[in-house]
Amino acid sequence: KASQGLIVHEKLDNLITPAQSTVTRTVCLCCCIPRGTCTIHAGFDKNSYAPGEVAQIVARIQNDSKSDVKNMNVHLVRYITLRSKHGHTKTLVDRVAAAKYDGVPAQTVKDMHLPLPLPNDLKPSTGGKCVECKYHLDVECGISMAPDIQTAIQTTIYAPQPPTWGSQAF
Questions:
Q1: pLDDT digits (tens, 9 = 90+) for 52-70
Q2: Within 13 Å and on the Cβ side, how many CA atoms surround 102?
Q3: Which string of DSSP letters, residue by residue, matches 63-130?
Q4: What is d(CA 77, CA 42) in angstroms, rounded to the nearest whole number?
Q5: Any idea what DSSP says for residue 3?
Q6: For 109-128, what is each residue's pLDDT tens digit?
Q7: Given pLDDT bands bounded at 50, 70 and 90, which one contains residue 48?
């Protein structure tokens, strides 16, 4: 008796295009004392990545608050949702890649390059009935004694395509 592993590559449904996201929030010291606003405008080189690639993110941070942004954080977060045939669901969330960069002083505008190397062992995104795996990229301003401000885009991790993709007849 013999066995053979089988890998099924889910079709990449969306076009690979650049993406951007912008958010403006009020910086509140201890959650109740307003200190001004902070805006993150993040541009992502694309909306889909293969394992091992580097996500290139360019961000403009406009810190119009009286508080310093202590550091800039970039994360790739994975959401795995499991569904039973009885309708029960469980979602597992984990941060699979992270990078930390210098912050932005109060009352300053700063353009930043925030590359995020992605691990080689990432599992691809999937949208099945029983198992769903989704990812998003977060750009976050870490502010002392205040809630962090973040913006994010949903991203697709696709399996590396075989070199003979499309040339095999079945």
A1: 999 999 999 999 999 999 9
A2: 6
A3: E-SSS-EEEEEEEEEEEEEEE-TTS-EEEEEEEEEEEEEEEE-TTEEEEEE--EEPPTTPPPPEE-SS
A4: 17
A5: -
A6: 999 999 999 999 998 998 88
A7: very high
Residue 45: per-residue pLDDT:
94
Confidence grade of residue 49 (pLDDT, cut at 50, 70, 90) = very high
**Residue 45 vs residues 23, 54, 58, 65, 96: alpha-carbon distances, Å:** 18, 10, 8, 28, 19
Taking the C-alpha atoms of residue 118 and residue 124, their distance in angstroms, rounded to an integer, is: 12
Residue 155 and residue 6: Cα distance in Å, rounded? 25
Q: What is the pTM of this model?
A: 0.83
The structure tokens listed for 162 are 């075989």
Residue whose token pair is 């941070």: 61
Q: Which residues of 123-149 are buried (b: 16+ CB within 10 A; e: fewer)?
A: ebbeeeeeebbbbebbbbbbbeebeeb
Q: How many CB atoms are located within 10 Å of the residue 56 CB?
A: 14
CA 134, CA 104: separation in Å to the nearest integer?
31
- Pull the structure tokens for residue 120: 């080689």
Q: Give the residue from 21, 18, 8 showing the smallest Cα distance to 49.
A: 18
Q: What is the pLDDT of residue 3?
A: 83
